[in-house]
Fold:
Amino acid sequence: MKLIFEHSVDGRQCSILPTCDVELTPMPDIMKRTVPPRLPELSEIDVTRHYTALCKRAHGVNCGFYPLGSCTMKYNPRVDEEIAALPQFTGIHPLAPLYSVKGCLEVLELSKKYLCSITGMDDMTLQPAAGAHGEFTGLLLIKSYHVARGDFKRTKIIVPDSAHGTNPASAAMCGFSIVSVPSNDEGCVDLDALKSVLDYEVAGLMLTNPNTVGIFDKNILEITDLVHQFGGLVYYDGANLNAIMGVVRPGDMGFDVIHINLHKTFSTPHGGGGPGSGPVGCKEFLKGFLPSCAISNASTSLQVKSFYGNFLVIIKALSYIMTLGAQGVREASQNAVLNANYLMHCLKGTFTPAYNRTCMHEFVLGLDSFKEQTGVTALDVAKSLIDEGMHPPTMYFPLIVHEALMFEPTETESKETLDEAAEILKTLYRRAFDDAESMKTAPHCAAISRPDEVLAARQPVLKYDF
Ligand SMILES: *Cc1c(COP(=O)(O)O)cnc(C)c1O
Structure:
């Protein structure tokens, strides 16, 4: 497929600008560019066809099943987009005087209130732009708390080995050293291992519950209690909130600080690098360390993003929460968990779940012995799914499961879709025994088959070479 620059023809254009109705002010020469910008020159239909062709090569939630584990690729109701697109929201300026944007301030206050009540937190900042950004912000809170108490020795953050890669990365960015604790056979934190690493140099523990293998850690109260006994704080990675919202609250599990991925749980499309939002909530005693902005009472100089964060994403979350209501939010989680367990159950007898117990909103298959029998890997199964019109699940994550495939069907999928997905997976299971070779070269119908991922990561070509 040609790049848009390769379609360009000198002098071709499609802009129809109205004649200027204000007096022209010449720009000083010093401010003018000496060479024109190298923008592609195309007609409107060229542009439309180019982006439509690109769009057809991508798979989105609107195209088909997208069970990408750990990402909560749920369907986002159109009404939330419509609300966020209202000109009263899109047409404001972040520096507008507060009296003129009372409605927008109410949106922020109400969002904070609902998100605090869903998570069991006392206050919140809406500034962070994503989950990882929230982690960084939350860890700064933990750091500020210890420093404010004159406790300068707390340099370590404990992270379970099942954690998402952003957890240790954020801790390192905050200047902490990372202590990893192993998981036990059930996929939960190994309590003895945790006890053996706890000391008075631990600033905190980061945990997601349910964790990245889709298991709710039933020892959570003991875990948070242990960390508190040593004076550490406990951080909740809220990326898996879709499994528990309206049912149980991180604040009641003993967590002190949390982030929420609005773009996973609360109705913002993601995956294409669009704007996200990672609000950070905390308990009362940490309020004073939150980033400051015009609508918070915090007196810190901490600011992690300009103004109020990604405002339009916050509106979508509020619209989503208000349309579902308390009962609906709870049902969304319950159905997410039901769907994951249903799909896992349908696959029994073929692929093996890594942990053979009731899961939360996602589950992990371990294809270790399947690979030994057939030579077909988790990657080959994932690639074969593309030909079947289904987005592959997350592969090779979490790292503690070998040949992992991680499915998160989400609550917005129907039983029919799940049945269909189960049939496709069972067909692929059988194909691996009959015709492994065809799976090793899949996908056969996609525009791109098996790119050199190492080369793409090491030597990415990010700009057009004119
Ligand atoms: C997605 C995710 C994150 C990071 O969130 P981003 O919004 O992608 O920065 C952190 N932890 C877990 C468990 C996740 O699934």
